[in-house]
């Protein structure tokens, strides 16, 4: 395979380094260089800029690989995977300081090396994308001249991000109320009360000293879970000009046309009177199909209700949030800003909407979430997914006074397949077992691969009795059917242990332990059997 990512090998034994390079290149990786000591490793990392360093710990010279990896990480943000024959406590402690992506003990198998490097490069790509998004956010914050703040209900004070002092110079780390110099005490108290009880904040306050007043708009959201102390994250911006003078659309004409955001100007009846090129590009609409129409008709999947506009025209004056928009024959998520423009008499004359396509962000979040909660070989949920789903099912069962069955499935004879036909055949067998389980459980059941040849089925509403026995026997029969692999046909069976909520325990760990114990009873009974937790014999 062609990965297009570069590796640097740091190994002081020439034969080992050559073998490692040959192995990696045979797997399709690009080896940019090989060096044998820490100084050369740092110089090569600076010159070649590899994506990943494969670092031996014992190197030529006085400087160990752990120190070289730390320097490379700090100077060039390039991570390492340690390849070493040693794992003493002091060595592990030194290795931790460089935040490595992995630690492989020699001798290792080629498939272990491939897996570690591949996952390391995947993590590296994800981190680069995350850093790119962070840079974009930093540039956007600086361009928008925003101040970033956090407020904790525990400390009861506002903390200001000091990374952008030029963008938002009005915050203070001193003793002023909420870090805003000149904020009136009464207004500070009212703002604090709002932060303690509300979920969304949109508020403009007056700050400043020595007779020079500025108006600052605070926007934020409470991200605390229910029952926890408030934890706000938000932004602030100087809106003095907008507060003292009705914002003129003419003054923003250059920004309007040059903005990467799609911008709409609506009249007081919410009909589109103007749109920039970015809007037409984002939505696929033309001027003929957009002008004169309400955006709820041609853009928004779910229209804004009247209450939204009343709040916008009242105290809020500004809103931002995620909305679902139309584009030809598809929908896409957008981050939308909405604001009101008033005339000299204070009446609403226009609305301004700005939208940004956030499809890529949502897709990246979904992909990262999938990787965190699913087994990469079979696509089934993993141990983290099991914890989440089992806690959710237990909570639902408690509300409905229902039962849950947890089936612990361990394959009989899987080790022989691995030993006789190789790990690729074993992986293919696991994929087939996963697919059979998907097809033969109920629609409401959840199938998880715990690891190795161990699988779990969470079966809500399945009680101890005939229904359970029928389902488990069906799974045993299905898993015992021959499996056609590329190297031949193999047959394995399974041992299944079944635990029940609430009889076997009220917590996920208790249920898992009981099901595991029951599975081992099934194995001791001769395999291709099942046992119920708390019952030594299979159900009749």
Strand order of the largest sheet: 2-1-3-4-5
**Low-confidence parts:** 246-252, 536-540
Tell me about the biggest sheet?
5 strands, parallel
CATH class of the largest domain: Alpha Beta
Helix content: 40-55%
Short description:
The chain has 540 residues and is α+β, with helices and mostly antiparallel strands.
Give a quick set of tags describing it.
540 residues; Beta-Lactamase; 4 domains; single chain; alpha+beta; five-stranded parallel β-sheet; 22 strands; five-stranded antiparallel β-sheet; 18 helices; disordered C terminus; Rossmann fold
Lay out the secondary structure.
Elements: E1 6-10, H1 14-26, E2 30-35, H2 38-48, E3 52-55, H3 65-76, E4 80-84, H4 89-96, E5 102-105, H5 110-144, E6 146-152, E7 157-160, H6 185-197, E8 200-207, E9 214-222, E10 231-238, H7 240-244, H8 253-258, E11 262-267, E12 272-275, H9 277-283, H10 287-290, H11 295-298, H12 306-316, E13 318-327, E14 330-342, E15 348-357, H13 359-373, H14 383-400, E16 404-412, H15 414-421, H16 423-440, E17 446-451, E18 454-460, H17 466-479, E19 483-485, E20 488-490, E21 493-501, H18 508-524, E22 530-532
Parallel strand pairs: 1-2, 1-3, 3-4, 4-5, 21-22
Antiparallel strand pairs: 6-7, 6-10, 8-9, 9-10, 11-12, 11-15, 13-14, 14-15, 16-18, 16-21, 17-18, 19-20
């Amino acid at each position: 395979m062609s990965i297009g990512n570069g590796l640097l090998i740091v190994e002081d034994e020439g034969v080992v380094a050559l073998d490692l390079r040959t192995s990696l290149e045979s797997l399709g990786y690009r080896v940019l260089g090989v060096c044998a000591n820490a100084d050369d490793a740092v110089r090569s990392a600076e010159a070649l800029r590899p994506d990943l360093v494969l670092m031996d710990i014992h190197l030529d010279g006085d400087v160990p690989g752990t120190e070289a990896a730390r320097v490379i990480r700090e100077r060039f943000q390039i991570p390492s995977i340690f390849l070493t024959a040693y794992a003493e406590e002091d060595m592990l402690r030194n290795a931790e300081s460089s935040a490595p992506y992995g630690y492989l003990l020699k001798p290792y198998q080629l498939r272990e090396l491939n897996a570690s490097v591949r996952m390391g490069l995947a993590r590296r790509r994800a981190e680069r994308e995350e850093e790119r998004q962070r840079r974009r956010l930093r540039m956007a914050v600086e361009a928008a001249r925003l101040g970033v703040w956090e407020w904790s209900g525990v400390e009861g004070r506002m903390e200001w991000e000091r990374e952008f002092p030029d963008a938002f110079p009005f915050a203070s780390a001193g003793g002023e109320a909420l870090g805003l110099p000149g904020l009136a005490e009464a207004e500070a108290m009212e703002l604090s009360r709002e932060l303690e009880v509300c979920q969304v904040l949109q508020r403009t306050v007056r700050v400043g000293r020595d007779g020079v007043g500025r108006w600052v708009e605070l926007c934020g959201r409470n991200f605390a879970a229910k029952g926890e102390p408030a934890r706000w994250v938000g932004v602030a911006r100087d809106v003095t000009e907008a507060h003292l003078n009705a914002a003129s659309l003419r003054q923003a004409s250059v920004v309007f046309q040059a903005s990467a955001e799609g911008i709409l100007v609506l009249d007081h009846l919410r009909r589109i009177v103007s749109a920039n090129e970015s809007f037409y590009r984002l939505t696929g609409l033309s001027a003929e199909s957009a002008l004169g129409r309400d955006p709820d008709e041609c853009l928004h999947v779910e229209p804004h209700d009247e209450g939204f506009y009343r709040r916008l025209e009242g105290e809020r004056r500004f809103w931002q949030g995620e909305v679902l928009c139309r584009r030809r024959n598809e929908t896409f998520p957008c981050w939308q800003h909405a604001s009101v423009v008033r005339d000299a008499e204070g009446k609403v004359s226009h609305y301004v909407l700005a939208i940004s396509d956030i499809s890529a962000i949502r897709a990246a979040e979904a992909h990262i979430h999938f990787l965190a909660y699913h087994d990469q070989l079979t696509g089934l949920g993993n141990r983290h997914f099991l914890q989440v789903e089992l806690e959710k099912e237990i909570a639902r069962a408690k509300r409905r006074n229902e039962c849950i069955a947890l089936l612990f499935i361990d394959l009989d004879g899987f080790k022989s397949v691995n030993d006789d036909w190789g790990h690729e055949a074993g992986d293919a067998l696991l994929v087939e077992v996963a697919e059979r389980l998907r097809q033969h459980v109920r629609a409401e059941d959840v199938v998880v691969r715990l690891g190795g040849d161990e699988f779990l089925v969470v079966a809500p509403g399945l009680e101890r009795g005939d229904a359970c026995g029928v389902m488990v026997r069906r799974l045993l029969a299905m898993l015992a059917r021959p499996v056609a692999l590329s190297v031949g046909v193999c047959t394995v069976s399974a041992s299944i242990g079944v635990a029940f909520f609430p009889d076997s325990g009220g917590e996920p760990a208790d249920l898992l332990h009981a099901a595991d114990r029951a599975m081992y009873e099934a194995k001791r009974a001769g395999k291709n059997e099942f046992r119920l937790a708390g019952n030594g014999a299979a159900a009749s």
